[in-house]
């Protein structure tokens, strides 16, 4: 099993991060619903767990569901449950995550990806505390605190306004890593220590050039990308000193070359592959989510490396 970033604490001392944490700590003392915004990989779920742990429901379950991880058909069943025979593969009753979270906190990540029909049922649940399992006529009740997260602006998209206003009683923005580069030395030390523990080896320490390179990079994948890059450097190199050469950082962009080549047509497969690579990075490696953004099926992205090789 790999080193799981969701096990990590929220590390940093930048003002942008401390402001977000202070808002989260204040919200934790209430029962208000919270919407956490921020780019992929900024630690939205970690903030949600911190809010749960700091509130009156801390001893009760924290249950998480990612809106981009399931098809619309399965999402309702996962959230509210189903009864045996409700659909072809429903071989037994399933209680659902709402029932699991009763008394505690339900965290809905990537809330923007929930289909409109399920949004209506979620709205009803928020308003009444009542829900039905798929295929069941019986009304059930559950008392949960809802914390939601999104990397998109919910307003102006295919998302109900009335649901948005009920979810966003308190809104907290998690800052991207490029706006908190002063935290990178602390994060690097923390991650390298944790990775060393997991790999049962002495921790590496970045030299000055490595730290400078880490702080220059824009980090489109944010904290998750930093963690993964450091993990790669540790497992692929020996010694206790992390150098800039060990980091899989993209080469610096030559702006003059970009301007010279801007008008030069590129093969279609090159343009397609660049769009796919950018979408996958933006989504933190989540292929189904990247496929939704590109408006193609996930199988198209899974097949892409083979297509590229044949080009």
Total helical elements: 13
Number of strands: 9
SSE ordering: HEHEHHEHEEEHEHEHHEHHHH
CATH H level, superfamily name of the largest domain: P-loop containing nucleotide triphosphate hydrolases
How is the largest sheet built, in terms of strand order?
Answer: 2-3-6-1-7
Mean pLDDT: 86
Tally of distinct domains: 3
Task: Give the overall shape.
Answer: globular
Major sheet details: 5 strands, parallel
CATH topology value of the largest domain: Rossmann fold
Q: Estimate what percentage of residues fall within beta strands.
A: 5-15%
- Low-confidence segments: 1-8, 306-311
Q: Report the span from N to C terminus.
A: 36 Å
Q: Provide the CATH architecture of the largest domain.
A: 3-Layer(aba) Sandwich
CATH class designation of the largest domain: Alpha Beta
